[in-house]
Design goal:
It is a single chain. The chain is built from six helices and eight strands. The protein is an alpha/beta fold.
């Protein structure tokens, strides 16, 4: 699958089959965790057979039956954006492996079997397993609320182009096709309570992109990291000449 197809197919899942991951899936997931840890310097742990970490009563529902979890351990919130960015790469890898996932800010941290070093604590957990369903689409904000193009416009409800050439073509909205494709990926990024409190700007040069959180909250930096990863994966796949500011 292409990056954008993987992003489109991935939905949050909270109900999992009580089945272990296959050897191939577990190995692939472990490779993704090790690679992310090595490249980021984050403390990321793949934990299996620890369903207790999800045994909490939460307004947004329990996670049930997940056979594995990816645990991010950190001191405070300084690494939050990196956690979101690298965690979403693991999420997309899990999707490619035929697995389902759910970012879990609300979990029973004291019941986690992750190894805590120094003053680190469990910051956030990703549930991983075989979903009872593949999840479902959720309501998203229109692109007109999520991005700005200097010297151009993003019409409400503009068509989303999915060109995968050199990135120089124009989408139905009259904007660079690569940018609209990348914005669709950002639009589909999971965020806390589906708030989508982020904004992306394409500078007047048509290449430079900025991303920022529009509200400060406990998970806003993690959300921004997730959004940046989705945008980047889709933009890079188009072959466009672009860069983060």
């Amino acid at each position: 699958m292409s990056a954008i197809d993987t992003i489109r197919a991935r939905h949050s899942v909270r109900e999992f089959l009580d089945k272990p991951l296959s050897g191939v899936q577990l190995a692939g997931l472990r490779r993704a965790v090790v690679e992310a840890e090595q490249k980021s310097g984050l403390d990321i742990q793949l934990v299996t057979d620890n369903p207790e970490v999800f045994q909490v009563v939460a307004r947004f529902g329990l996670v049930r039956g997940a056979t594995a979890s990816v645990v991010f351990c950190a001191e405070g919130k300084d690494a939050d954006e990196a956690i979101g960015y690298w965690g979403q790469r693991i999420v997309l890898t899990a999707q490619e492996l035929g697995l389902n996932t759910c970012w879990c800010a609300i979990c029973s941290r004291k019941k986690s079997k992750a190894v805590l070093r120094g003053d680190k604590k469990v910051r956030i957990v990703i549930a991983v397993g075989l979903g009872k369903t593949q999840g479902k689409d959720r309501k998203t904000k229109p692109l007109s609320e999520l991005c700005t193009v200097e010297g151009g416009s993003m019409a409400n409800g503009a068509g989303v182009g999915t060109g995968t050439g050199a990135g120089a073509g124009m989408g139905e909205s009259g904007l660079p096709a690569w940018f609209v494709t990348a914005m669709e990926a950002a639009q589909l990024a999971p965020t806390a309570v589906n708030a989508q409190n982020f904004h992306i700007t394409l500078r007047a040069d048509g290449k430079t992109v900025t991303a920022r959180a529009t509200k400060e909250g406990g998970w806003s930096a993690i959300d921004l990291g997730i959004v940046r990863r989705n945008f980047e994966e889709a933009a890079n796949e188009t072959g466009a000449d672009w860069r983060w500011e």
